[in-house]
Amino acid sequence: MSAQLQHNAAWEASPLAFLSRQFIEGVPKIPKGVTLSGKTALITGSNVGLGFECARQLLALDLSHLIIAVRNQTRGDSAAQKLRNEFPEAKIEVSLVDMASYKSIQNFVKWCETLPRLDIAILNAGLSRPQFERSDESKHEMTCQINYLSTALLAILLLPVLKKKRGTSEPAHLALVGSDMSYWAHWTGTSDSIWDTVDDPSSWSSNGAYQISKLLLIMFVGKLSEYVSPDEVIVNFPNPGACRGTEFGTDGKRSKIEQFWMSIAKPIVGRTVSTGARSYVDAVAVKGKGSHGSFVGEGKIKPYPQFMYEPAGKALQETAWNDLMKELSFAKPLEILKGSN
User: Fold this and answer.
1) Measured CA angle at 227 (ends 302, 277), to 5 deg
2) Which candidate in 183, 210, 227, 304 is catalytic?
């Protein structure tokens, strides 16, 4: 488990480790004999990019029922049709969820409760904003809203569904898509509250906000895993690595450093979309109970960010958890989680 891998944390945050992940370690092929026949999976943000490619790879493993969870019906339908053409034997449907709306997330989970079966949930939807922007609903910074707050709400609400609807004695899988950019997150605030830092436009940067959102998310995964048995639901944090050929982070006016990364560096060092998506598949179709609550990458269990092993990081993890429970109190998350034990 990641909690026992502190000795490797500093290395994973180094530039050499990043290059090693991208060029040497890679992501292993899915072992022969792995099958998802009879199973149902949902993937958020799956009409394009890594989410769409993950859907293809799950279907290639004989997944019986795929749910494309997106915010735009037309784009979802287009993606679904492409997959139906390639995998005519599978049941593929589209369901709407707007990750910027807590109400939409709650309604989506109510729909999931009507499914006859749900074995796998991959929470892939995320964003990186070019300028500081607040959520109209919560008033929190938008990158944190989508990548952390809304993803955490969806994960908590899906836990009882996955427990109840998993079709076999095997545990269900809940993967919250991560990033090795969490290794480089720099927390500049105190451990009294996350909001003073997250919602402060004066110290905001696009890259920094994304890194912080993924740091908070892996902290959440670590805490969430304490509330659910891996015998019922395995919760993990797959890292696709830097991938070329996606639309992610290409919108809006970016800094010169980000423009250089997107236009020159990423095409050179980036993985293919197929390789990145295979990290998701590995997390939900290959990895077992040993990955519960852990950072998963390159087919291995990886350490948490170094900061999480330090006293200040542990204090921030507790603060972030308490702030999250207050933010999501309308959904009674602690009652749900206590019922998951």
Assistant:
1) 40
2) 210
Which residue is it, tokens 């969806």? 154
Residue 80 has pLDDT above 80, yes or no: yes
Domain that holds residue 191: 2-338
CB 147 within 8 A of CB 214: yes
198: domain CATH number is: 3.40.50.720
265-309, pLDDT tens digit by residue?
Answer: 666 667 899 999 999 999 999 999 999 999 999 999 999 999 999
> How many other CB atoms are found less than 10 A from the CB of residue 11?
13
Q: Which residues pair with 96 in a beta bridge?
A: 70
Report the pLDDT value the prediction gives residue 1, as an integer from 0 to 100.
84
Number of structural domains, the chain? 1
Inter-residue contact 62 to 37 (CB < 8 Å):
yes
Average pLDDT, the chain: 93
Q: Which long-range contacts (CB under 8 A, 24 or more apart) does 313-321 make?
A: 313/187, 315/191, 316/187, 316/191, 316/194, 316/219, 317/219, 317/222, 317/223, 318/191, 319/191, 319/192, 319/193, 319/194, 320/194, 320/216, 320/219, 320/220, 321/219, 321/220, 321/223
Residue 210 designated active-site: yes
The residue annotated as part of the active site, out of 39, 102, 165, 214, is 214
The more confident residue out of 271 and 151 is 151
Q: In terms of pTM, does the model score above 0.90? A: yes
Question: CA-to-CA distance for 302 and 323, rounded, in angstroms?
Answer: 27
The answer to whether 214 is a known catalytic residue is yes
Residue 8 sits at the vertex; the CA angle it makes with 238 and 224, to the nearest 5 degrees, is: 40
Place of tokens 């989508």: 146
